[in-house]
Amino acid sequence: MAFTNKKIIAGNWKMNGLKRDSWQLINDLLSKYETPDEKHNFEMIVCPPSTLLSEVVSMTEGSPIRVGAQNCSDKLNGAYTGEISPVMIKDIGANFVILGHSERRSYFKESNADVASKAELAIEQGLTPIICIGETLEQKENGSALAVIEDQFMNSIPSNATTENVIVAYEPVWAIGTGRSATTQDIIDVITKIREVSEKKFGLRDVSVLYGGSVKSSNADEIFAISDVDGVLVGGASLKADEFWKIAEASEK
Ligand code: PEP
């Protein structure tokens, strides 16, 4: 079984947002739900910067909006100045953590092994990691994209992962923040590959797989038309309540 049967609409705020922005954005999103228990066929997750996690958890308490962090340590506690432990994230009341985002892989030199050890501890502490994998433009152009995806999947997903306690996000690096989304065929090819390697690793094909990379309300219909896409990881467009909500609504069409 996958993590959820609903479509997952996750927003990565990256290093954006002050207190007043988060109040505005969360209030605007909450006001889109007519009642707190209104039924939707999507699960909305917002991932603010760590300075706003506590604030956003309080604001969304009792609402359908769920909260995640954008990174965590692979250590539980101790002398690791500046790091944030998964147990601290859980303690705040967040339930998810994005790991292995391409910005962390490239700017902070996180390897597959680093991602796997963070994810292992996150799972142990009861967080659901959203583990990002994706090829660079160079890898796409030299034909190694599917091999890169297989390698990242096999080596970034820890041994305590199951299809129920992790979410995988396919995020081609060349599509992140560029306005250039992957084509339907690109997405189908990679998700088919991910399901193949998931079967190899977990004996199951139905791990939840999100697509991320320049998702907007104008291309959301096309992305959700791909039956194998279990949801989206949205960067820039998740900072605008109307846009993010329209993307979520597209998942219900
Ligand atoms: C992301 O940062 O995960 C992302 C997909 O960004 P954007 O939607 O802005 O391309």
**How many strand units?**
8
Residues in helices, as a percent range = 25-40%
Enumerate how many helices there are, as a single number: 10
Rg over C-alpha atoms, rounded to the nearest angstrom: 17 Å
Give structural notes:
This protein has ten helices and eight strands. The protein is of the alpha/beta class and 253 residues long. It has an eight-stranded parallel barrel with strand order 1-2-3-4-5-6-7-8, surrounded by six helices. Helix 5 (112-124) crosses helix 7. The model has no long low-confidence stretch (mean pLDDT 96). The structure holds phosphoenolpyruvate (PEP). Phosphoenolpyruvate is lined by residues 12, 171, 176-177, 212-215, 233-237.
SSE map:
Blueprint: E1 7-12, H1 19-30, E2 42-47, H2 53-60, E3 66-69, H3 86-92, E4 96-99, H4 102-107, H5 112-124, E5 128-133, H6 137-141, H7 145-156, E6 167-170, H8 184-202, E7 208-212, H9 217-224, E8 231-234, H10 241-250
Parallel strand pairs: 1-2, 1-8, 2-3, 3-4, 4-5, 5-6, 6-7, 7-8
Helix pairs in contact: 1-2, 1-10, 5-7, 7-8, 9-10
Bound molecules: phosphoenolpyruvate (PEP).
Quickly describe the structure.
By secondary structure, this protein is an alpha/beta fold.
Overview features:
253 residues; binds phosphoenolpyruvate; eight-stranded parallel beta barrel; 10 helices; globular; alpha/beta; 40% helix; 15% strand
